[in-house]
Amino acid sequence: MAFVFVIAACYALEIFLVDLGWADWKAIGFHTIVPQIDPRSIYIAVGMLGATVMPHVVYLHSALVQGRVRENEFRCPTGQWLQRLRHVKYELIDVLAAMNGAWLINSAMIIMAAAVTLRSGHAIESIEQAHETLGPLLGKASAAAFAVALLFSGLSSSTVGTMAGQVIIEGFLQIKFSIFLRRLITMIPALVVIGLGLDPLKILVLSQVVLSFALPFALVPLIMLTRRTNVMQELVNSRVTNWLAYTTTGVIIALNILLLYNAFGGKF
Question: What is the pLDDT of residue 60?
Answer without folding.
Answer: 77
